[in-house]
Amino acid sequence: MWVYYEETDGELQPKWLILKARTKENCPYYRVDVPFQRFYPEDAHDEFHALTITGGDLVRNPLEYSSFGIAVHRLKDTADLDNINFFILLCDDLQEILALDLQRRFRTAGNKAASGKTAGHFQ
Questions:
Q1: Closest CA relative to residue 53, chosen from 72, 28, 25
Q2: Is the dihedral of CA 19, 20, 23, 24 positive or negative?
Q3: Could you give the 3-state DSSP secondary structure of residue 116?
Q4: Phi, psi of 29, deg, nearest 5
Q5: What is the pTM of this model?
Q6: Where are the domains of the chain?
Q7: At residue 120, does pLDDT exceed 90?
Q8: DSSP codes joined into one string, 104-115
Q9: Number of C-beta neighbours around residue 116 at 10 A
Q10: Which superkingdom, per the lineage (predicted)?
């Protein structure tokens, strides 16, 4: 899991969450309480094929407060998932679905990592 930040008034604000796509599952679940790395634009490469996930395709996991799903079965009708290897979603959308203060969690970690690059190339 990676987080892309925008700088606002000298402070890093988490903007996007980037996940490895699990397109073979109907509704893969992801956790937000796992380690993540900062994403930099130069981390994207020729094999970086991403699909933007909207809030309407996010599903809250009723069994785990820090887990969410992506309704991949809904995406299959409108997107060619065969070449997708990453999902991108707005941190704000995810925060709304989970009702957790993800901005604070990702912002704190992002500001600590601002001085050094912590993310490697996507694989």
A1: 72
A2: negative
A3: coil
A4: -105, 145
A5: 0.79
A6: 2-112
A7: no
A8: HHHHHHHHHTTT
A9: 7
A10: Bacteria
